Amino acid sequence: MAGGSTFYRGHGFTLIELMVTIAIGAILMVVAVPGFQSFQRSSAVFSAASSFASALNTARAEAIKEGRPVIVRPATGTNWTTGWIAFVDVNGDGTYAASDGDILLLQQASLPPGVTTPTTTALPGFVDTAGAVYVRYNQYGNPTVATMTMPRSIDFTASSGSNVTTRRVILNAVGRARTCDPIPPQNQATCVP
User: Fold this and answer.
1) What's the CATH code of the domain at 178?
2) Is residue 185 assigned to a domain?
3) Which domain does 119 fall in, by range?
4) pTM for the full model?
């Protein structure tokens, strides 16, 4: 073409194509984020409950192996959400002190934000007459606390609005721990202490 100019259309996105792509991405995010948050919450609850059940089962096995009392108690105070420790209580005083020869078996960090356990008043089986919160195994692997009636349970829960995720740890009469889902309709009949 003489005297005319040649137009070249480059490869890329037009503004409209870009805006449609961003809009589709935003819609996918709106749909996916709540599901992902629910998954994260469920995962944190399942992990905490499994870790606690594992600590109880480890303590029981160690008590039988060592032939000495093994205690699982909150890391600090009387609240299981602060984490927990399990130790061989060599001198039988109920408190962990490396200087007394006590052997630390495991230590769990604080639970993730949003994951809770009931207050100690809701756990009479894990509280002795002096108000101390713990699970103590004797040399036979049986849980022993003067006021404990077995079996006992503790719930790990996280909620967001009306969505509640709960996992229960049940400690049976011989000291074995297991986890289950107490919310209907999943296994409600078998998830009782």
Assistant:
1) 3.55.40.10
2) yes
3) 15-190
4) 0.75
